[in-house]
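Appendix C reproduces, verbatim, an entry submitted by the partner laboratory led by Prof. M.T., so that reviewers can inspect both the input and the predicted structure.
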Amino acid sequence: MDRLWAPWREAYVTAVIQKKSDCAFCAILKAREDRRNLIFARSAHSFAVLNLYPYNNGHSLIVPVRHVGDLDRLRPEERLDFFDLMSATKRLLKAVLKPDGFNIGMNLGRVAGAGIPGHVHMHVVPRWKGDVNFMPVVNGTRVISQSMQALFQQLKKAQRGGA
């Protein structure tokens, strides 16, 4: 396949580009309402949050606490914490959702597809065999099989040692 067409993303990307608001990540950190904002894990320098525009069930974002626009600007302890939280999040998602694999990556800069280019973040997307279907192509609709609140509760329970 030479190209993956995703025309349904245009409305979202255009809306994000046109917004001239404060950083969404900084705003949810400042609110300190983890349940409402779906922040399911915090570490010394980072946090993990469910993506409001998921590609798949469990699509999470790993975000440094400090507002930094590029990996090169993270301090060594922040960078280590950021990648450690990514690993912990992957393990948690694996235990709770039992995916067959993961896509993990970053879009650095607006032209690379970053929806929030001023605050670096990493995507952790669980994948299952056969999880891609015709709905996004034909109808512009992604099928997410679980509510974010239900998944948030599962992740918090697993962190506390429950199954």
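The first strand starts at residue 39 and ends at 42. Additional entries are available on request from the coordinating office.
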